[in-house]
Amino acid sequence: MTGPMIERELVIVGGGPAGMAAALAAHGQGVRDILLIERDQFLGGILNQCVHTGFGLTYFKEVLTGPEYADRFVTKINSTPAIETSLRTFAVALSRTKVLTVIKPGRLQNIAARALIMATGCREKTREMIHIPGTRPAGIFPAGLAQKLINVEGLLPGNEVVIVGSGDIGLIMARRFTLEGAKVRAVIEIESASRGLVRNLTQCVYDFDIPVYFNHMISRIHGKDRVEKVEVVKVDGQRRPIPGSKFELSCDTLLVSVGLIPENELIEMAGVRLDEKTNSPVSEAPNTTAIPGLFVCGNAYKVYDVADSVTADSQLCGRLAAEYLLKIQGDSFRPLSPLEKPCKRR
């Protein structure tokens, strides 16, 4: 893609907990030219829609909500002049030479980064990835999308809900739907134990008397314009349906909470090899890639259970990037002129 080219010392893609922690850690190690890119209109990433508590227990030794946890880092970012943030900015291409192409309102831009940290997080697995047969009606949502609709947009996606999978977001949304007055018919989990944290299973499901069916799977979805019901069947140790165990649950909404996939298409575009099972970069050392100066942190590196672990991982990544820049500081690199440096906030 063509467009104006600028050069920066450290560029970080993703303004969630990973990107912010990496930026602050790199600044703490002496990096003074940091560009933090975020596609949303606010920093914070997924934390902004996580209004439940459970954050900060390890890092801050306090019980915080997601927005409270994010705000502590946003405050530090905004009070650090060396860290420039570029909001509503989409990274669309990356070359092996660490040239990043971004689109922002009104223009396209190429950024040559001396060091680059990808803190792009992860996305949810979909119905198609777990091969649930049936019709394709409205009312089927990834659990995280339903969370955003309720907590950010103020919309209730449905009134009678079945949740397939017991990932943390799905468990949390079981409680959230119940508190909003909806009826959660059941949580269906193909494994013999929950995929989520024990505290979420206890506090969000058992405490609200929501049925959980372990060793069960949804065998078919019914509905024309909207989901009407799902068929559920018990499975054996090899995940094979057990004859005669099928039953139906009526619902108008199906939430899919069956895991997360690291968002690493950009580094794959640059030539980084990804693990076929996890979609994480294949590397010899944590947070690194085969391309010198290209780092990956947070849920883009591997999926973590809690944001506190994302923060710790990303701080390490920020320090690694700073060490890399220190090693190559003797190389020729033209600093930005005052006219090239954009304003602090976009």
Structural class of the helices, strands and pairings?
alpha/beta
In terms of DSSP E residues, the strand content is: 25-35%
Low-confidence stretches: 331-346
Number of helices: 7
- Write the element-wise H/E pattern from the N-terminal end onward: EHEEEHEEEEEEHEHEHEEEEEEHEH
Count of all domains: 2
**CATH homology-level superfamily of the largest domain:** FAD/NAD(P)-binding domain
CATH classification, class level of the largest domain: Alpha Beta
* Rg result: 22 Å
CATH fold-level topology of the largest domain:
FAD/NAD(P)-binding domain
Percent of residues in helical segments?
A: 10-25%
Form type = elongated
The overall average pLDDT, rounded, is 92
The CATH level-2 architecture of the largest domain is identified as 3-Layer(bba) Sandwich
Question: Biggest β-sheet: count, sense, barrel?
Answer: 7 strands, mixed
The tally of beta strands, per DSSP, is 19
Distance between the termini: 22 Å
Describe this structure in words.
This protein has 346 residues and is α/β, with parallel strands linked by helices. 23% of the residues lie in helices and 27% in strands. It contains 7 helices and 19 strands. Strands 1, 2, 5, 6, 7, 8 and 19 form a 7-stranded mixed beta sheet that branches. Strands 10-17-11-12-13 form a 5-stranded parallel beta sheet. Helix 1 (17-28) runs parallel beside helix 2 (66-78), helix 1 crosses helix 7 (307-327) and helix 4 runs parallel beside helix 5. It is elongated. The relative contact order is 0.18. Mean pLDDT is 92; it is low at 331-346.
